[in-house]
């Protein structure tokens, strides 16, 4: 009996080339319509010129080079109404490109010095697992799982079971294939589903934890998707995720009244296939409204921004009691009888425990360690968008040959070469015309990300960790939602919310779980006989 030959596994290049022959989808058709509208309206409307030709009054001196695609509020509303098909169409045509040109991880990441792109993407997921407190044996849901890289990474690191849900069938098929190749089928599984309808797929209180990596930005309503997550979580369960948001925190510059910023946001939405990019304050209020207690609230894309400052040289005197020394003023630090400078501000205790000191510098100077590099040394801080900057400097920021090759692939010169190649293939009938529009869409998104990052208005991986409090009754949940509504309404009318919520109000919100249902009713009123879903497709609360 002849032996059946085993078919070789497709390479990344083969997977990518298979994606060069998709039928023109409705998404590229919509993008083509945006492009045509831009070409027509630019003849009459000055605000549709390229940013570098506009006369703006922005305090930033950087000239934006991204082209505006005039997306009206009515069109954005229509996209939100068709968010499911919108996201499905988008990932039908970009998933192969994301995997081939970026990674199996479909998310951004900050970069620590010396870390490669692949290492940084894994660290991103590892940190999310750590701050969530995931443990072996937990049952975890990954909403918007893509092709399953974060789910497999978490399962491999922690040993928990992960169920991935995505709206796109090709992503499900690819995630299953990669999971089989990595031998992770005993811990990971993937299904097609809508995270706006989790209650139709899973019973309430089924999962110990829910995670997500920059996926819920495709939801038409953040309140809706957070409410669905609340429904499938057990009491005491944790929801850890990152969100792509417009940065209206105290460190961001997002301003809804700026037409220039709004147009840049629209470019991000169109190029990234997102239903609606919301400010950080809106996402925070939606999470509180869903009934979660915030445990972590930070801009992870700026996690290593402290590296943008030169190392702080400090002096300290050995043996002084804690709090007695002024670091800015003191110039004495005796270490083995010598006055030295310290490279770190981390305090070490003296042997008797009554004082503290700073550690001495290394035996060799920092400059000597960095002399004679084999490759160009990356700068101390590499922004999250450096791989798509498209410049020679960005290529030199790579720390491995693989990184430099990946960044070179996304350079402006490589883009021009690839665009020309695709246009020739379209002319020969090998590729569909939608491929040329897809090229424009991807370039639009990359350029918009770089400019929004430089303008400090876009936070691509804002990290939240929320917990579903144990014993949170329906009346208490309704009361917390009313308080969150009042907070969001009052704050948003007066201006952007601060980077951290008012602690007095937040403490009041956390104390709600200590009130009895009778106390909550006296404070907030008796719930109606039947309370409609607070979120679109979200949790239904009944008295």
From TrEMBL:
<dbReference type="GO" id="GO:0032259">
    <property type="term" value="P:methylation"/>
</dbReference>
<keyword id="KW-0808">Transferase</keyword>
<feature type="compositionally biased region" description="Polar residues">
    <location>
        <begin position="50"/>
        <end position="61"/>
    </location>
</feature>
<dbReference type="Pfam" id="PF08498">
    <property type="entry name" value="Sterol_MT_C"/>
</dbReference>
<feature type="domain" description="SAM-dependent methyltransferase Erg6/SMT-type">
    <location>
        <begin position="90"/>
        <end position="292"/>
    </location>
</feature>
<dbReference type="InterPro" id="IPR029063">
    <property type="entry name" value="SAM-dependent_MTases_sf"/>
</dbReference>
<dbReference type="InterPro" id="IPR013705">
    <property type="entry name" value="Sterol_MeTrfase_C"/>
</dbReference>
<dbReference type="GO" id="GO:0006696">
    <property type="term" value="P:ergosterol biosynthetic process"/>
</dbReference>
<dbReference type="Pfam" id="PF13649">
    <property type="entry name" value="Methyltransf_25"/>
</dbReference>
<dbReference type="GO" id="GO:0003838">
    <property type="term" value="F:sterol 24-C-methyltransferase activity"/>
</dbReference>
<dbReference type="InterPro" id="IPR050447">
    <property type="entry name" value="Erg6_SMT_methyltransf"/>
</dbReference>
<dbReference type="InterPro" id="IPR030384">
    <property type="entry name" value="MeTrfase_SMT"/>
</dbReference>
<dbReference type="InterPro" id="IPR041698">
    <property type="entry name" value="Methyltransf_25"/>
</dbReference>
<feature type="region of interest" description="Disordered">
    <location>
        <begin position="28"/>
        <end position="64"/>
    </location>
</feature>
<comment type="similarity">
    <text>Belongs to the class I-like SAM-binding methyltransferase superfamily. Erg6/SMT family.</text>
</comment>
<keyword id="KW-0489">Methyltransferase</keyword>
<dbReference type="GO" id="GO:0005783">
    <property type="term" value="C:endoplasmic reticulum"/>
</dbReference>
<keyword id="KW-0949">S-adenosyl-L-methionine</keyword>
<protein>
    <submittedName>
        <fullName>Delta(24)-sterol C-methyltransferase</fullName>
        <ecNumber>2.1.1.41</ecNumber>
    </submittedName>
</protein>
